[in-house]
Design goal:
The complex is a heterodimer of chains A (298) and B (339). Chain A has 298 residues and is mainly alpha-helical. Chain A has helices at 2-9, 15-24, 33-56, 61-66, 78-85, 87-120, 126-136, 141-154, 161-185, 189-197, 202-213, 215-231, 234-239, 248-258, 263-296. Chain B has two domains: 2-72, no CATH class; 90-338, MetI-like fold (Orthogonal Bundle). The two termini of chain B are 38 Å apart. Classes of the chains: A mainly alpha (298), B mainly alpha (339).
Chain lengths: 298, 339
């Protein structure tokens, strides 16, 4: 019953993560060769530019100039070593990491709290609150960036990592709420009643039962928040001025304009900058894809 | 104490039943009024405690800046001190007659339309293909999602190196004997927007395919089997069963794509920059807004552009909701906007 309620609110449902496994469980047969050909072609198109960046970092500038599309010959690791030894890369890496972790924490904690209120309490403004966040999906940061910059400036947070973290939390909330509310709603009332009989308060139930029970949704939201923060460009562009405070996206851009003649090193810097998000993604791939599709599909 | 909790659970259950009608879950006058009232105060307190931080944060850093943009849009203001030079609708009048804005508006809508036309059919086709029983499906899903995960800055840096006139793309064309096709992909004004569309499609198609795949997998297998037994061909099944049932997914994807296209900023800013993108024919509304606001210091005019951008997105979203998404979304965005 609670599942139907969730569905009528929004076509989202934690049904997707659960349903996914069922299809994969069947023994698979080999399909048609054309299918494989097209699939491989598609993968090739998706991956080639990424490979270009990664492999380019293993080449020298003269290799890149004489044969821009060639493979490394011989392979050189000097570019990567240089970048990995530079304080600049690690400083920007640390900034990105700090911003991403703090934003993720804020988004998950605040998002869980408000989603729980929307999902499992009944009050007059509930619908309005949900609609507010749903409408917030339509405000990407770009639209509000100029006044946002002014607000951050008035708070004295320009060129301060907090000036990036705080707005990122606020802008991360809509997605979080939209994804988490159906998860929290789907927890059967019987469990809550049983917990109440065992003497758990509603807030106790929230912390000890609801959060663990909706963990798949929480993890999805956390990953999305982390990657969103890791990749964010426009807000740091406005807020952070000094290179010591740059996050990696700003760093990549500054590096590539500063060393525009040293293409190989730019490529090495760029591929190292994308590595963490890729690793993070491949570790949690199932969760991201499952959660995303659970949240958006109709 | 446990009595109170029991009552609350009952209130909760009651409310879940009537979740559709807001505020309808008022119970009849309680026999033990003080206990009830105390429970209700506690309930209110809990709701406030849980939702206040997020709501305040959201109002302060999302809603307030948007409102502030509307306010600054009425001033000629360069970002220092309080705005004093009230120009009323002057900025908006300027926008309506500004040929540069008409240019970027054209580009933005072109990008929006082309994204739908290019990515939609491609994504549906690829999803149908990948939804068959083939080996390595989960690996495929990871790999096609990679471009979506990488940041716009990295995509922009990589692609602008590849697409420059002495870059990898032209070199590759030369090597495979298509040297005649070499071109100045980034700065030729006739080509640049198509290069941009190629990059956009590359970056976002994986997301579309993943969505469509999930939509396909939620269609009950029995329908296909029943249709096959009734003698329907593969294409008939796709046309009569798959596509209609995939409708909600397609409509949601299109909505996300439209909103995303109208706000496009990072990729263009990284690859072309604010000045070149104008002459290369790729600048978007957001690029123009940043160029006017932050970089030229016309914060009032920049804010007015932001408001126009917001209104365009809102109108498009509402129209789309009203006529396309109505059955899928039950007006979540529309309600929020009206209130």
């Amino acid at each position: 019953m609670s599942a139907t309620t969730a569905r009528s609110w929004f076509p989202a449902g934690p049904g997707a993560p659960a349903g996914r496994g069922a299809v994969g469980d069947r023994p698979q047969k080999w399909g048609h060769p054309v299918t494989y050909f097209v699939a491989l072609l598609f993968i090739g198109v998706c991956i080639a530019p990424v490979l270009y960046i990664v492999l380019g970092g293993f080449r020298t500038n003269s290799q890149i100039t004489t044969s821009p599309a060639g493979l490394p010959h011989p392979w050189v690791i000097g570019n990567y070593v240089d970048v990995l030894k530079s304080n600049r890369f690690w400083g920007e890496f640390a900034n990105s990491l700090m911003v991403a972790l703090a934003s993720t924490l804020g988004i998950v904690v605040l998002g869980l709290m408000v989603s729980y209120a929307i999902a499992r309490y009944d009050f007059r403004l509930k619908g309005a609150m949900y609609s507010l966040f749903a409408a917030g999906l339509m405000f990407p940061m770009v639209i509000a960036i100029t006044p946002l910059y002014i607000v951050v400036k008035d708070l004295g947070l320009v060129d301060n990592l907090l000036g990036v973290i705080v707005p990122q939390i606020a802008f991360g909330l809509p997605t979080t709420v939209i994804i988490l509310v159906p998860f929290l709603r789907a927890i059967p009332d019987e469990i809550e009643e049983a917990a109440a009989i065992d003497g758990a308060s509603r807030l106790g139930f929230f912390v000890r039962m609801a959060v663990p029970l909706s963990l798949p949704g929480v993890v999805t939201v956390g990953i999305l928040a982390f990657i969103g923060s890791w990749n964010n460009y426009v807000l740091p562009l406005y807020i952070l001025n000094s290179q010591a405070n740059f996050t990696l996206p700003l760093g990549v851009q500054a590096f590539s304009s500063q060393y525009s003649t040293d293409t190989a090193k730019v490529l090495a810097f760029t591929s190292l900058a994308m590595l963490p998000a890729l690793v993070f993604f491949s570790v949690f791939e199932k969760r991201i894809v499952g959660g995303l599709t659970g949240a958006v599909k109709g | 104490m446990s009595d109170t909790l029991g009552t609350d659970a009952a209130v909760g259950r009651q409310s879940r039943v009537t979740a559709g009608a807001r505020g309808a879950a008022k119970l009849p006058a309680p026999p033990r009024a003080t206990a009830r009232r105390r429970a209700r105060v506690r309930l209110r307190l809990e709701i406030a405690l849980l939702s206040a931080p997020a709501i305040l944060m959201f109002l302060a850093f999302v809603i307030f800046p948007v409102a502030l943009a509307a306010y600054y849009g009425f001033y000629r203001w360069h970002g220092y001190g309080a705005p004093t030079d009230w120009v009323g609708l002057g900025n908006y009048r300027l926008i309506l007659t500004d040929p540069a804005f008409q240019q970027v508006l054209k580009h933005s809508f072109m990008i929006m339309g082309l994204s739908l036309v290019i990515q939609g059919p491609l994504a549906i086709g690829l999803a149908l293909l990948l939804n068959q029983k083939i080996r390595g499906r989960s690996a495929i899903r990871v790999l096609i999602f990679v471009p979506y995960i990488i940041s716009e800055v990295i995509v922009g840096t990589g692609w602008s190196l590849m697409a420059q006139s002495d870059g990898a793309i032209n070199d590759l064309l030369r090597h495979i004997g298509l040297g005649a096709l070499q071109a100045d992909w980034l700065s030729d004004p006739k080509l640049a927007i198509w290069t941009l569309m190629a990059i956009i499609s590359w970056k976002y198609i994986g997301f579309a395919v993943i969505l469509m795949l999930a939509g396909l997998q939620s269609i009950p297998q029995e329908l296909f089997e029943a249709a096959a037994i009734d003698g329907a061909s593969y294409w008939q099944i796709q046309r009569r069963i798959t596509l209609p049932l995939l409708g909600p997914t397609i409509r949601i994807w299109a909505f996300l794509s439209i909103i995303g296209s109208l706000q496009l900023f990072d990729l263009v800013y990284i690859i072309w920059g604010q000045y070149v993108s104008g002459t290369a024919g790729t600048s978007t509304m957001a690029i123009y807004m940043v160029a006017q606001g932050r970089n030229a210091g016309n914060y009032g005019y920049g804010s007015a552009i932001a408001v126009v951008m917001f209104l365009i997105s809102l109108v498009v979203a509402l129209v789309y909701q009203r006529f396309v998404l109505r059955r899928d979304l039950r007006g979540a965005v529309a309600e929020g906007a009206v209130r």
